[in-house]
Amino acid sequence: MKLQFRCPHCDAQNFRHRSEEFHRINCESCGWERPVTQPSADASQLSECLVCGNHDLWRQKDFPQSIGLTFVAAGATLSSIAWYYHRPVWALGILLAFAAADLVLFAIMPDVLVCYRCGARHSGGDLSEHPTFDHETAEKYRQQKLRLEEAAKSSPG
Ligand SMILES: [Zn+2]
Ligand SMILES: [Zn+2]
């Protein structure tokens, strides 16, 4: 399983990749650690976030948006160069080819399970049984986070 998370204690970005199960999660920069209650080698068996224990996880394509955007931008640039040299068929062909490649890339990308609360990303295994993004659930967590921040601000110390 691959795990990517921000340390809840020091906010450092951590990345783990193991073929066997995790028994505890720890932060490399501050030493924070948390035991894993249901160790599993595969993200598909997860029912809770390994980092914060939250039960709401959603499935996403493990496809960095920046790559997708760079790809689209490259296609558009090449296409406009072809257009500039009066090659409209080329221009259209390039755009279509890049759009198709983008779709293929997206389809072959593995899924990743994201925690609504802390944003930890767990990947590995077939995650198709898990639900996709739900706006209501996300909103619930956003409100909760805002309330926590408000509480932290108003309490002395
Ligand atoms: Zn830390
Ligand atoms: Zn979490």
Global outline? elongated
The helix/strand class is: alpha+beta
Largest sheet: 5 strands, antiparallel
Domains counted in the coordinates: how many?
Answer: 2
Q: Which kinds of small molecule does this entry bind, naming each only once?
A: zinc ion
- The end-to-end distance, rounded to whole angstroms, is 39 Å
In helices, the fraction of residues equals 25-40%
Q: Can you give the mean pLDDT?
A: 91
Low-pLDDT windows of residues: none
β-strand number = 7
Helix count, DSSP H or I runs of 4 or more residues: 3
Per DSSP, what share of the residues sits in E-state strands of 2 or more residues? 15-25%
- Report the C-alpha radius of gyration, rounded: 21 Å
Helix and strand element order = EEEEEHHEEH
The side-by-side strand order for the widest beta sheet comes to: 2-1-7-6-5
Short description:
The chain is an alpha+beta fold.
Topology, element by element:
Elements: E1 2-6, E2 13-17, E3 24-26, E4 33-35, E5 57-61, H1 65-84, H2 88-108, E6 111-115, E7 121-123, H3 135-154
Helix pairs in contact: 1-2
The structure holds zinc ion (2 copies).
Residues 49, 51-52, 54, 115, 117-118, 120 line the site of one zinc ion.
What does this protein structure show overall?
The chain is α+β, with helices and mostly antiparallel strands. It folds into 2 domains: 2-62 and 110-154, no CATH class; 65-107. Helices cover 39% and strands 18% of the residues. The chain is built from 3 helices and 7 strands; from the N terminus they run E-E-E-E-E-H-H-E-E-H. The protein has a 5-stranded antiparallel β-sheet, with no helix packed on it. Strand 1 and strand 2 form a beta hairpin. Helix 1 packs antiparallel against helix 2. It is elongated. Bound molecules: zinc ion (2 copies).
